[in-house]
C-alpha cells in the first residue's frame, strides 16, 4: 500500500503557499464572489480569511482576520455581495461573520447534529444548511427560526446550488434534486450512478445537471432532462496502481465551465465534460487534498494539502502531517483549452454509459 511520506514533496506543482495556514486539517475553502479574499475552515475550530494579491505570476497572501467556533468547522460560504461569511460545523450551528464591517459573528442557524454543508442563495436571500440530523433548513438570517425545514432521507454530505437548481447528496447514495422555485417539495430523487458513498457534488453552470464524486475514485456526469440521459457517463480518476482514492472536491471554472477534481491521492486535475477529455493532470502532492475552489474570475485555484482523516485517527501523525493551502494559476491551461484538447487523454476510453 502506498503511503504519504513525511519527506515527500507537498508542493510538486510549485504553487504559491498561503501564509499562516490552519494548525489542523482544512475542511473547506471559498473565495469571495467580489474580490480575492479566501476563507478556510478547519478542524482547529477556526475560520480564517486572507487577502490574496497578484502581480503578474507572483501571488501573495496576507492573513486578515479569524473567528472561532466551539468545535471543528466543516463548511463555509460567502454572501453574494462579498460582505459576509457563513460557517458551520460540529457545534451544530452556522455563524454569520460580517467580515467587511469588522462586526462580531452571530449564530443564525441551528441543527440537532453537525452542519456538513451550507449554501447562500442570493435569488431567495436565504441560507440553506444541511446537517447530519437528516434535515435541510432554509434561513432568513434576520429571524431565529428556519423559514422551512426539509426532511432528508439520510445525513447530508454535500450541497450544490446554481439557482433554480439545488442538489443535496446524502448518505446511502441519495441525490435529492430541488427546483428552488418550489423549494418545499423534492423535484427528483436519484440514486447515485456511483456504487459507493457520495463525497462531492457540483451543479452544471447551465443548471441542466450536476457532477457527483464518490469515495471510489470516480465521477458521474448526470443530466436532469430525461431526453439527455444518453449523455450521462461516469469516469475513473484519482486512482494509482491498485489504490483507489476519494474525489473530495468538484469545482466548475466560472468562465470556461471546465471543471477541477481534487482527491485523497494528493492530485488535482482539470477536465472538460462536454468533450470527455482531461485538460491537465497535475503532479501528486504528498498528502491528500480535502478541498479546493476557484476565485471569482477563475484565475486562481486554491487547494488544501493536509491529512483528510480518510484512513482514520490511527494513521494520523501530528509530527509529520503539516497543513498547507496553495494557490495555483490555471489560466495557461484554460486559455489554450482547445489546443490542450488535441493533446490530452480522452475520457471516452475509460468512461461508462449508465
UniProtKB/TrEMBL annotation:
WD repeat residue numbers: 19-60, 66-107, 108-149, 240-281
Instruction: Give the UniProt keywords, A-Z.
Output: Repeat, WD repeat
KW Chaperone (keyword) present = no
| SUPFAM superfamilies on file | WD40 repeat-like
Put simply, this protein is called Protein RAE1 isoform A
Species source reads: Glycine soja
Tell me where on the tree of life, at the top rank, the source sits. Answer: Eukaryota
Amino acid at each position: 500500500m502506498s503511503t504519504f511520506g513525511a519527506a515527500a514533496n507537498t508542493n510538486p506543482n510549485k504553487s504559491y503557499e498561503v501564509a499562516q495556514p490552519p494548525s489542523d486539517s482544512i475542511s473547506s475553502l471559498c473565495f469571495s464572489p467580489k474580490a480575492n479574499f479566501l476563507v478556510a475552515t478547519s478542524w482547529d475550530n477556526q475560520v480564517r480569511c486572507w487577502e490574496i494579491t497578484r502581480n503578474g505570476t507572483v501571488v501573495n497572501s496576507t492573513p486578515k482576520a479569524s473567528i472561532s467556533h466551539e468545535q471543528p468547522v466543516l463548511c463555509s460560504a460567502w454572501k453574494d455581495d462579498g460582505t459576509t461569511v457563513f460557517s458551520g460545523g460540529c457545534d451544530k450551528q452556522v455563524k454569520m461573520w460580517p467580515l467587511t464591517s469588522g462586526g462580531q459573528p452571530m449564530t443564525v442557524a441551528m441543527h440537532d447534529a453537525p452542519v456538513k454543508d451550507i449554501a447562500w442563495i442570493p435569488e431567495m436571500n436565504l441560507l440553506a444548511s444541511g446537517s447530519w440530523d437528516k434535515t435541510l433548513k432554509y434561513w432568513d438570517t434576520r429571524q431565529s427560526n428556519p423559514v422551512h425545514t426539509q426532511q432528508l432521507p439520510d445525513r447530508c454530505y454535500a450541497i450544490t446550488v446554481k439557482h433554480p437548481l439545488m442538489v443535496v447528496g446524502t448518505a446511502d447514495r441519495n441525490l435529492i434534486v430541488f427546483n428552488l422555485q418550489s423549494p418545499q417539495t423534492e423535484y427528483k430523487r436519484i440514486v447515485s450512478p456511483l456504487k459507493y458513498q457520495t463525497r462531492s457534488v457540483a451543479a452544471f453552470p447551465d443548471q441542466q445537471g450536476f457532477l457527483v464524486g464518490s469515495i471510489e475514485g470516480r465521477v458521474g456526469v448526470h443530466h436532469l432532462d430525461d431526453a439527455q440521459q444518453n449523455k450521462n457517463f461516469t469516469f475513473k480518476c484519482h486512482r494509482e496502481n491498485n489504490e483507489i482514492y476519494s474525489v473530495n472536491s468538484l469545482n466548475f471554472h466560472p468562465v470556461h465551465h471546465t471543471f477541477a477534481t481534487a482527491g485523497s491521492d494528493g492530485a488535482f486535475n482539470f477536465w472538460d465534460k462536454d468533450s470527455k477529455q482531461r485538460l491537465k493532470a497535475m503532479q501528486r502532492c504528498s498528502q491528500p487534498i480535502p478541498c479546493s475552489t476557484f476565485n471569482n474570475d477563475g484565475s486562481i485555484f486554491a487547494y488544501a494539502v493536509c491529512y483528510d482523516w480518510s484512513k482514520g485517527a490511527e494513521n494520523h501523525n501530528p509530527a509529520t502531517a503539516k497543513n498547507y493551502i496553495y494557490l495555483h494559476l490555471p489560466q495557461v491551461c484554460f486559455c489554450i483549452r482547445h489546443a490542450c484538447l488535441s493533446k490530452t487523454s480522452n475520457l471516452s476510453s475509460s468512461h461508462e454509459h449508465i
